[in-house]
Structures are given as C-alpha cells and as structure tokens.
Amino acid sequence: MKKLILFSFLFLISCLSEERNTIKEAKNGMIDLTNHSFQSEPYVALFGEWKFYWNTAPTNIKETETDLLYQLPNHWNGFPMEYGKLPGFGHASFRLHITLPDDLQETMALTVHEQDTSYAIYIDGKYYGGSGIPSNHTNEFVPMVKSTIVVLPKSKNITIDLYVANYVHRKGGIWNDIILSSYTKAESRLTKHKINETILCAIFAFVGIFFLVMYFYNRDGRQTLGIFLFSLAVLFRTMSTGERIILEFINMPYWLLLRIEYVSWYWSAPLLYHYFYTIFPNDFSKKVGDSFYLLSGLLTLGLLLPPVYFTETASIYPIAFVLNGLLILFYLFRAFQRSRMEAKPLLAGIALILVGATNDVLHAEAVIHTTYIAPSTVVIFVFLQVFTFGRIVRQNILKTLAFAEEQKQFSNSFSRFVPTEFLYHLGKDDIRQVDLGDQVQKRMTVLFADIRSFTEFSETLTPKENFDFLNSYLQRVGPIIRHNNGFIDKFIGDAVMALFPYNINDAVKAAVEMQEAIRIYNGHRANCGYIPIEVGIGIHTGNLTLGILGEHKRMEGTVISDAVNLASRIEGITKLFSSRIVISAETFIEASDSLGFHYRLLDRVSIKGKAESVFVVEVLDGYEPEKANRLIASNDEYTLALDAYRREDFEEAMMAFSALLDKNPDDSVTSLFLERCKEALDRSKLESGTS
Description:
Elements: H1 2-16, E1 22-26, E2 30-32, E3 44-54, E4 68-72, E5 74-75, E6 80-81, E7 84-85, E8 90-99, E9 108-112, E10 118-123, E11 126-131, E12 148-151, E13 157-166, E14 173-174, E15 178-182, H2 183-217, H3 222-240, H4 246-249, H5 254-279, H6 286-302, H7 307-310, H8 317-337, H9 343-364, H10 374-415, H11 420-425, E16 439-451, H12 454-458, H13 463-483, E17 487-492, E18 495-500, H14 504-527, E19 535-551, E20 554-560, H15 562-577, E21 581-584, H16 585-590, E22 599-605, E23 614-619, H17 625-633, H18 635-646, H19 650-663, H20 668-688
Parallel strand pairs: 1-3, 2-8, 19-21
Antiparallel strand pairs: 3-4, 3-8, 3-15, 5-14, 6-7, 8-13, 9-12, 9-15, 10-11, 10-13, 16-18, 16-19, 17-18, 19-20, 21-23, 22-23
Helix pairs in contact: 1-10, 2-3, 2-10, 3-5, 5-6, 5-8, 8-9, 9-10, 13-14, 18-19, 19-20
C-alpha cells in the first residue's frame, strides 16, 4: 500500500513538475527587464498594470498619460467605467511596454494561454497570431480557446497589444497567465503540457475500457461500470480543458468544445458518488445520489441554451461539486469507522480529488493562478481503485488460472490417449465434443513401424523389462513422428501406426530419421550388453476415414481404410526383402526429389486381401551410411539386373545379381533375387528335362 501511494505521488509530481514562473509586476503599463536574467529565471509572468482600452482595437489606440490601467490576469466583468460597470460581452485591447536586457542572445517568445473567448497578439503594431477571430462585430467574431506561442522581434523595447473579444461567454478578458521566455523554453513547456495531458487521457481511456470489459465479464459487479463512467467523464474533461488536446485530433467549433467541457464537469460528481454507493451501499445515501443525478440532468438540459446562460453555472455548480466531495468524504469516513474493506485507501483518494477539484475551480474563476491538477489527482485515485480491486481480481485470476491449469492438465491427459491432431482433423476442438459415429474422410500417408522378431525377443525378458524396453524405444521414435508433422494413431503391441496428413515427404523423412535414431539406440544397447533391434517401416498413401468407433460406454478414435491395411502389409514385406524402409508406388510417385533420398524398385508383390499385386519401392537411406552409399553407387547396375529378371532372362539376371552381390555381400535384396533366378533356372531345367 505504501509503495502504491509513493508511486502515485511521484507520478503526480512528474506530471506537474516544471520551472516556476517569475512574477514581474507591471507599473503604469510598463515592465523593465533590463537587469533580469533569463538563464536563471527563464519564465516571466507579465502580471500587474496593463493599459486598458475598452471597445478599441490595437490599430485604433491613441496612447496618453491618462489611459486606464487594468490588473492582469483578470476578467473585465464589473470593471468600473464612467457610465457604469462593464458586462462580460464586448471587446478591448490591453497594452504593455517591455524593456529587455541588452545582452539577450536567445530568440524570445510570448506564450498566451487560453482566454475568454478569442484574442489576437500584436507586437509593435503588427499582428503575430492568436486564437479565434476577435472583432467589434458579432457577425465577424469567431470564438476559440487555445494556447499560442509567438516569436518576438529582436528588439530591446517591445510593445505588446492583446486584443480580446467575447460575445458568447459569461465572462470576458484575460484570465490566464501571459508568459515571456525564450522560444525554446516556451515550445518545450507547451509540448510537455500536451504530452502530460495526452498521457492522462490515455490512462483514463485504458482504465475505462479495462473496467468496461470487467463489467461485461461480470454484470453483477456494478462498481466496475461506475468507475468506467467516471473515467469517461474525466477523460472528456481532460481533453476539453487545459491545452484542449482534443483539438489536436478533431477540429471542432467552440460551441461544441464548450459543451463537452461542461457536460463532463456536470456528470463527474454524481458518477463518482454512484461509484462509491455501489461499493458501500449500506454507508452511502441513495437519496443524496439521486439528488445529484437530478441536478446534473437539469444542468445538462441547460446546455441547449446559448453559452452565455449555461456558463453562469460555473459560479454555482462548484458549490454542489465541492458539497458532493465533502459528502463522499463523510460517508467514506463512516465506512472506515465501520471497518469496511479498502475504505482507507479510498478515503485518501477522494480527499486528494477534493483538493484537486477545489484548485481547478479557483483557477478557472481566476481566484488563484496555478494550473489544472484535478486530472492528475484522479489518476492517483484510479491507481488506488486498482489496488482496491487488486485483491478481488487477484483471487479471481488465481481461481481462473487454477481452473485453466486443471483443464490444461485434463486436456493434456486426454491428448496422450486421443491425439489433439486426430480431434482437429475430425473437426473437434475438445474431447467433450466427440460423439459416437463422428467421422471424416481424408487423404493421408500411413506409416507402420514394427520390431523384427519381437515375439522371440520378448520371451527373453520379464514383463517389466518388456514394458521398459518398449517405452524406451517409443520415446525415441514418437518425437520424430511429431517433429515431421505426423501423429501416432495407435500402438499395436510393438508396432506403431502413424498418420501424416499434410505432406507425403513428411512420412518418408520421418522413416529415415527413425532408422537413424534406432542405430544410435542400438549403440547404447551394445554398451549395456543388450542385443540390437531391427525395425521395418512400411508407408502408403491413400484415402481413409477417421472416426469414433465403439459403443456409448466405450469409444475410441480409429482409422478405417484399405490404405491402412495396405500400409500394414507393406511393412510386412520388409521382412521378405529384409529391408528397412519400403513404400508403395503411389507414395513414391508423389514423393519429392528435393529431399535428396534414394530409391530402388523392389518388385510387384501380391498383397493379402487385394486382387491385384502392387509395386513396392525401397528407400536406400534407411540403411547405415556406408551400406547406403554402396547401394546407391551400384543402383544403375541393380536396375539393369532387375530389368533382366522381369524380362525372365534369368541367366543374364543371375550373372548381374552375382556381380552385385560380390560388391555388396550384405545386400539382402540382391541375394533374394539371385536365389529366385537360380530357382527359376532349376525349374526351367526340370520342366525341359535337361537337369
């Protein structure tokens, strides 16, 4: 709590910290700054007696020793003239003669902040800038309120004329500071003001959106809607006062800007009261809140009138505004006495807002000359609200995270039995969406991997050793399948059935990497004194059906297809040829040459359950690198020998296979074809009777 308060006050100080103005009192319309150092005191506020010319433009001024003097900054309302006191409406010029230092090197500038309700700046009789269009005719007058910086001519003696006109606001005149400084200092300060107000607006917008989202997630939390509405009101108040940064983004007329300023002011008080009422309904009076709502509603209707009428409320509404703050302070103190949760930080926050609001009202009425600080105090208040809701939000977040983690663990547990990829291709996001009979047809590549002679091998192991061995083996091949965009559909004893839904090359690449991993695994087994294992892999591509099979009390995801059966049979063919990786001709035709793998045709073989035989192809990269390189080097000779064999020229084929076997004595495929050639020749001799 202490750290939060410290951070909040540091934020307030950073927003408001700037070099203070040095007040120089003008006497009889003149200020002598000959001995002033703009290095040590860069900002000079031109207070004091300015010469005052009512209903006179600067170009029509005829200066005399008896000219009227006016103490600035101040509104001219009620200024005594010979014919009576001045009203708010009218136009007037203010003149000041300035003598600057002789050794001044910097380019000087004049900063004129917003005035009621338009002004023009004349330097030595020449127009330099302003806000809106002041005029002595209402049809030529254009109101606008914004700050202006003008560069002064390089001269020791300067005459400044401020021409102000007002025909819409209840008050007229110069009520804000007029600052003399170097141009770089003036530009830097004005930029800082705009940046600070932009940051404040961004904070209010973010907080408002944040609590609005919270409200939509929890409609019972009415206090979140209350802080959203209050943040929205303060946001519009901040954008439409001070440097009025809303004009940096939207070019809006004065009448609209003024109404945004007032409506946000009218509603900030009742919305703040309502917010606290939703938190402490037993400590705050609903009738008091309703009365403030009624007052704000009536004042909002008054905005339909011309500004001269509704701006009069600026003298009355501050009483209601401060009263609202005092009542909130009283009810919060009562909640604090009753030990309501988080009443203490809220009490500190509303006290700070009350101080800021009082300062802003007095500044706007030209009673004091400071700056607007209410938005910054509201930021601190918002920080305290974050702290107030922090515990509740934290508890909710922790519960949500715990639930999410539980759901994640639940999902992960099921994904180890039913792969998430299976559900994805089935069109399901969650295992709970699965129902009996769900199915979808896809074209995929099926991979079967089986350990050779596992039955005999497993008989030498205990049941525990069998499980440990299989888990150790599967831990090596499973990640390879997933890494190559496949997923394991099921384990069938020691066999693995995997599906590759995207690219045929993924399956071939996975098979080659699996054989490499098995060679490394065999090296570890040899170091431990265990016998090596061999794995045959069969691959086929085709259409298949993924679906949910079983009955309502027991279901499982499975794949049904002739392609699955064919892939399983092709894996069995690896035993016939003693090959490592065998793929179907369909897979071979669609596989990409860019992978750099090497293939050789084996034979057309009969598949159990299929009327027609199929061609199968061997992937040579599945062997040890040395053996694979020898087979690849003699692949052309193998192709010629196989061609002779298929032409049933068994003598030529036998000679070719014999030559190949001399080069590759460990080539089981060549050895098999050589035996077939011998058997064919022997059979031919028996049939011809020449044996």
